[in-house]
Amino acid sequence: MTAPELVSKSRCFHGEVHKYMHQSTATQSKMTFNIYLPDAALTGKEKVPVLYYLSGLTCNEDNMITKGGALAHLSKHQIALVTPDTSPRSCGIPGESDDWELGTGAGFYVDATQEKWSRHYNMYTYVHQELQDLVKEHFAVDALRTSVFGHSMGGHGALMLALRNPGHYRSVSGFAPICHPSTSEWGRKQFTEYLGKDEELWARYDATELVKQYEGERLPILIDQGADDPFYKSKQLQPSHFVIATESSRRNVVLENRVQPGYDHSYWFVQSFMESHIEFHAKHLKQ
Ligand SMILES: N[C@@H](CCC(=O)N[C@@H](CS)C(=O)NCC(=O)O)C(=O)O
Q1: Closest C-alpha to ligand 1, atom 5
Q2: Mean pLDDT over residues 4-16, rounded?
Q3: Which terms does the UniProt entry file under GO BP (predicted)?
Q4: Which residue, judged by its Cα, is nearest atom 19 of ligand 1?
Q5: 88 neighbors 27 (Cβ within 8 angstroms)
Q6: What is the mean pLDDT of residues 110-127?
Q7: Which residues, other chains included, contact 192 with Cβ-Cβ below 8 Å and sequence gap of 6+?
Q8: Which atom of ligand 1 is nearest to the CA of 152?
Q9: How far is 57 from 76, CA to CA, in rounded Å?
């Protein structure tokens, strides 16, 4: 695997934030990501646990790492953070950037099967496999201690990745995750476009459908949802569907679901609960 190309490097909270670009096999395009490495990982003294964060619609690799308020807490726990982009970019697909809910910035963490998108839009393989292989090879992270979290579309991506791959992620959490994409406009629109009309295939990427079938190792899950989030109110997120599916199927998942009065969908909300999510992951990553 060719080494990623360093684009920039900045010191921050007793560690460094690096931005890299690399040619991806999964997406057949250049991809960028940021990685925060605490000093222990930079000196090579020890391999540190690693958290992957998946962003929401319209985001790139920078939104969370610049305004999520995560780095001080990651430094305290000596955990690395990887923030990938949310889609391939500038692939030459007709209309790829015309709609903020589709294409650029909206990859939905699936492997597209529809011809228009299938060459490049393979974000599932990219974030779950290719990027993690690359990070493991080039940085001092302990891949056996990996967890995943995310926001909105990325919160769903995190839940879906963890439920599809029992034992791979120690813990998973979401800030206002889309929870049942087969039943909400955010989800149906993108699944139809990327995966076609076969709803059985959708179910393999839908966190609520996946939790009904989960047979893996014990999976700790934390969800925070702002009560004043307009996308929650308009039923794009549907956390209650996920809660009911979890409770009724009695699967090997331990879910803490919290609704936070007064908070909306923005990074003001995300940064308000970031410390609590990192404490949650640190507990499981250090066991
Ligand atoms: N552009 C949309 C909002 C999209 C949105 O809220 N995106 C969330 C993720 S779903 C986000 O994190 N946006 C980027 C940011 O706040 O930095 C609108 O105008 O309603």
Answers
A1: 57
A2: 98
A3: formaldehyde catabolic process
A4: 100
A5: yes
A6: 98
A7: none
A8: 10
A9: 29
- 37-46, 48-57, 259-268 — which is least confidently predicted? 37-46
Residue 234, amino acid? S
Whether the CB-CB separation of 8 and 19 falls below 8 Å is answered with yes
Q: Which residues are catalytic?
A: 152, 229, 265
DSSP states of 92-116: --TTTTS-TTSBTTB-TT-B--SHH
Distances 228 to 122, 266, 276 between C-alpha atoms, Å: 33, 11, 20
Provide the H-helix boundaries in the chain: 39-42, 63-67, 71-77, 115-118, 123-125, 131-138, 153-164, 185-195, 199-203, 207-213, 230-233, 239-249, 267-272, 274-285
Assembly ipTM: 0.92
User: 1 pLDDT exceeds 80?
Assistant: no
Angle at 123 between CA 72 and CA 97, to 5 degrees: 95
Q: Which of 54, 55, 57 has most ligand 1 atoms within 8 Å of its beta carbon, as the pocket-test mutant? A: 57
Cα separations in angstroms, 60 against 20, 33, 50, 87, 221: 13, 9, 19, 8, 24
Indicate the DSSP class of residue 122: B
This prediction has a pTM of 0.98
Hey, what are 103's tokens?
């294409």
Structure letter (DSSP) for residue 127: I
Question: Which two three-digit tokens encode residue 36?
Answer: 């925060």
Q: Is 57 in the pocket of ligand 1 (CB under 6 A)?
A: yes
Residue 199 pLDDT > 80, yes or no? yes
DSSP state for residue 229 in the 8-state scheme: -
CA 21 to CA 10: how far, in whole Å? 16
Please state the domain extents for the chain: 5-285
Q: How far, CA to CA in Å, does 13 sit from each of 17, 33, 79, 268?
A: 9, 19, 12, 21
Q: What is the fold of 5-285?
A: Rossmann fold (3.40.50)
